Amino acid sequence: MNSIGMAVLIGLVAVFAMLDSRLLGRLNFEQPLVTSAIVGILLGNPAAGLASGATIELMSMGLVQVGAAVPPDMVMGGIIATSFAILTGASPETAVAIAIPIAVLGQLLGVMFRTIIAALGHRADAAIAKGNFREAINYHIVWGTALYCTMYFIPVFLAIYLGTDFVQGIVSAIPDWFTNGLNFAAKLLTAYGLSLLLSMMASKGMMVFFLLGFFGCAYLGIDVTGISIFGVLLALILMSLKYSGNAA
Fold first, then answer.
1. Helix %, strand %, coil % of the chain (to 5)
2. Whole-prediction pTM
3. Do 75 and 153 form a contact (C-beta atoms < 8 A)?
């Protein structure tokens, strides 16, 4: 596959991931683990794509959109960083280091495009006031979606189309102190993301199951897959006891 075709395909992956939370109902296709795996398949190295995606996914757990606050764009960051890592043979840690500044750039682009789309909202309101409902639908669904697709496709396309040599130059130009600092920040974000997940389980009814799985892994030598299987079986048993209507 030539560089243009590869760049177009990966750009379309970014567009598809962006549409997940805007038209498809948030099916989690925009998660770095999924998008990086797809990028790895397209670039002929699914193992590297999964490794980079898993590392970036852990970091992105700590990035939460609250209200109008726009977090760093890990969709764009994860796709471009995984592509860079595969094209240059870099490690997943390097992919994380690349993903952070790209995600911040995507955040700035997101703020800019949201400003433009706000203007489309006013135009749609004016069209509704005149009874032009088809025009309002076009503003909301067609033009707004087209702008977002352009926002994601063009940066990803250019990054991939510029080629491996350019990507390698970017990776080589990153100083060690900067990479180490970003790796340290990524570890902090990973810890924060896991803390957010644990906060959902920090209740009297749920914490005992978490501790059961944790100590099962730590002292019984059961891996996470085995713990998950036993967890599902235990949940089925408890559900049958709760909803069977028996005294037990």
1. 80, 0, 20
2. 0.61
3. no
